[in-house]
Amino acid sequence: MPKISIVILTHNSIEFIKACLDSVFAQDDQGFEVIVVDNGSKDATVDLIKKNYTRVVLIENKENLGSCRARNQGIEISKGEWILTLDCDIILAKDFISQLIIKTETLPSDIGLIQSKILKVDRKTIYSTGIFLSSIRRFYDIGKGKSDNGQFNASKYIFGVCSAAALYRRQMFEEVKEDAGYFDERFFFLVEDVDLSWRAQRKGWRAIFYPNAICYHFGNSSRLPQYMRQYLCFRNRYYSIKKNEGMINYMLKVFPVLIYDLPRFIFIIIRHIIKAPIYKINKIFKKSIILEIDQ
């Protein structure tokens, strides 16, 4: 049984996937399995994987089912004690896996999520060192955009992990799994890692940042238009609050709603009317504009 199962998502990823998989198979510790879930690529991504990476277990979806469903497909067939989720545009440092394995052997039993140090491809700018959740329930990638000058070289507890390159304990996954999956498939794309981290905390699991596991991220390999990203981030943030805290509790915080959320909501609605009618967005994601989530 592998110590770690690596689950990688692809969708028209021909310009990224080779560098990603090459960095995976160049690791100085090979105690892992690799599962690639392709979300209906129309380019040569699948052919490249089949021809050059025979170790890969490949799941081929006929259409784009979203990052949540695709990750869940990979997790469901994985065998490792730990599951590493990777975006297709991630490149791992050569000792990335061995550093994670070393860390897992000394962890307290309540640590269920490990955040690696994710740098941008310039190898000097922080992309994420974990997720921070503010008092008004905004979430941020810790350190994003800052130069890495050693200020993020200490391991620490954090609210949650960025799924672009994060390690999850299988036991934690099984305990927080919902009817909608490990990652909530109703989110489709974006904010699902915040929701999962929040659910894990509610079950008593903790997350840590581990700076010795370093990787490099191109970013926005999905090529999703900015106005759609804004819409999904806004929508999914509220879904996550409703699930994990309850909207009544949040709405009692009148100040953040009036000062931050209302103007942002109006801006997003206006931008969507200009950029794309609601029916077009719904057709793309095959979802209703209103998502029903059970309390």
Overview of the structural elements:
The structure is a single chain. This protein is α/β, with parallel strands linked by helices and 295 residues long. The chain folds into 2 domains: 4-217, Alpha-Beta Complex (Spore Coat Polysaccharide Biosynthesis Protein SpsA, Chain A); 226-285, no CATH class. It contains 10 helices and 12 strands. The protein has helices spanning 17-25, 45-52, 67-77, 96-104, 170-176, 192-202, 226-244, 247-251, 254-275, 278-285, and strands at residues 4-10, 32-39, 57-61, 82-86, 90-92, 111-120, 126-128, 131-133, 139-141, 156-158, 165-169, 206-217. The strands form 2 sheets. Strands 1, 2, 3, 4, 5, 6, 7, 10, 11 and 12 form a 10-stranded mixed beta sheet that branches. Strands 8-9 form a two-stranded antiparallel sheet. Helix 6 (192-202) runs parallel beside helix 7 (226-244). The termini are far apart. Mean pLDDT is 88; it is low at 278-295.
Task: List key phrases describing it.
single chain; 295 residues; alpha/beta; Spore Coat Polysaccharide Biosynthesis Protein SpsA, Chain A; ten-stranded mixed sheet; two-stranded antiparallel ribbon; globular; disordered C terminus
CATH architecture of the largest domain: Alpha-Beta Complex
Distance between the termini: 38 Å
CATH class group of the largest domain: Alpha Beta
Our count of helices gives: 10
Count of beta strands: 12
Q: What name does CATH use for the topology of the largest domain?
A: Spore Coat Polysaccharide Biosynthesis Protein SpsA, Chain A
| Overall pLDDT level | 88
Query: What profile does the largest beta sheet have?
Result: 10 strands, mixed
**Number of structural units classed as domains:** 2
Radius of gyration: 19 Å
Percent of residues in helices comes to 25-40%
Stretches with pLDDT under 50, minimum 5 residues: 278-295
CATH superfamily of the largest domain: Spore Coat Polysaccharide Biosynthesis Protein SpsA, Chain A
Envelope shape = globular
